[in-house]
Design the sequence.
């Protein structure tokens, strides 16, 4: 039997009930979301205070002409500091040094890390000890590592590098004075190669062994297996290591400060060290703040583009799988 027409819910009543139910579920889900995010709020607030508030002050100072050694010189100049930054020839030279430092260090570190990871992926006597020794440079404090390379490795009289190369006719070469930027890059490569090695080694150990066995059964050689199977599998790990290494190397300061002081001239200075010179040696706060803003914006743009490429690679792989 059907219900009388008077007892049937009208379309308006049904829609009202549905909207009430949806709003209740939305309130529950929103409350559940806040309950989960609540414990993270203190960390979020701390991060905002520590990072964003100083950046806002930097934006403000970048619009000021302010030299600390001239009292009363502080005044508003708008975007003039940014114009002066882009017209500064030393800034562009230092920017080129930064790009060379990052690209050279990351490229060589990835290649050496890949070679070491391929070696450590094989079973041999003492592999655990070898892994521990190869990881050690990444655990050394950057300042201590820079001092070791400056005093023990590159010293023109007592340095180990000259001692090892002396049988080949190399005399007392002052490597840091003659090749300042390559000397800093060598120290950074020594420290960052273990990181790349660990990342690539994790990718190697996550690779299914049955695929390699199937390739060997089909008659593929070692180089063909590496080119067609191993390297495509390691692509995402290499890209991730490249992006992370580049992001961290943009902030390199300690190695340059301890080894070369940015010299001779600005031959080995990078952007953070040049900003430090303008702020704490030249006392030009406005120019230094404008340079800092330009570097931060450029780094964010490049990092966002690179991370988007990596996420696309991961998503594409997962969808293809």
Sequence:
């Amino acid at each position: 039997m059907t219900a009388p027409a008077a007892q049937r819910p009208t379309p308006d009543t049904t829609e009202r009930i549905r909207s009430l139910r949806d709003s209740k579920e939305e309130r529950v889900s929103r409350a559940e979301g806040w309950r989960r995010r609540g414990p993270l709020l203190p960390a979020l607030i701390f991060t905002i205070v520590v990072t964003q508030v100083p950046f806002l002050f930097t934006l403000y100072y970048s619009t000021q002409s302010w030299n600390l050694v001239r009292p009363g010189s502080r005044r508003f100049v708008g975007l003039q500091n940014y114009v002066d930054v882009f017209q500064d020839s030393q800034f562009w030279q230092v920017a080129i040094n930064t790009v060379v430092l990052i690209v050279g260090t990351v490229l060589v570190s990835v290649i050496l890390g890949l070679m070491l990871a391929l070696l450590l992926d094989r079973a041999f006597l003492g592999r655990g000890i070898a892994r521990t020794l190869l990881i050690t440079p990444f655990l050394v404090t950057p300042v201590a590592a820079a001092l070791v390379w400056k005093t023990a490795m590159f010293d023109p009289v007592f340095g180990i590098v000259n001692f090892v190369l002396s049988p080949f006719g190399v005399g007392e070469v002052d490597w840091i004075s003659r090749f300042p930027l390559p000397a800093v890059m060598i120290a950074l490569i020594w420290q960052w190669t273990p990181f790349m090695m660990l990342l690539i080694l994790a990718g190697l150990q996550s690779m299914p062994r049955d695929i390699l066995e199937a390739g060997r059964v089909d008659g593929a050689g070692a180089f063909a297996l590496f080119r067609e199977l191993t390297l495509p599998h390691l692509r995402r790990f290499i890209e991730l290591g490249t992006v992370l290494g580049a992001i961290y190397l943009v902030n390199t300061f300690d190695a340059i400060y301890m080894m070369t002081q940015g010299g001779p001239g600005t031959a080995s200075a990078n952007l953070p060290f040049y900003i430090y010179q303008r702020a704490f040696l030249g006392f030009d706060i406005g120019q230094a703040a404008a340079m800092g803003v330009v570097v931060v914006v450029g780094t964010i743009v490049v990092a966002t583009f690179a991370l988007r490429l990596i996420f696309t690679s991961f998503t594409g792989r997962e969808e293809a799988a």
The chain is about 75% helix and 0% strand. The longest strand covers residues 64-65. The first helix runs from residue 11 to 37. The mean pLDDT is 85.
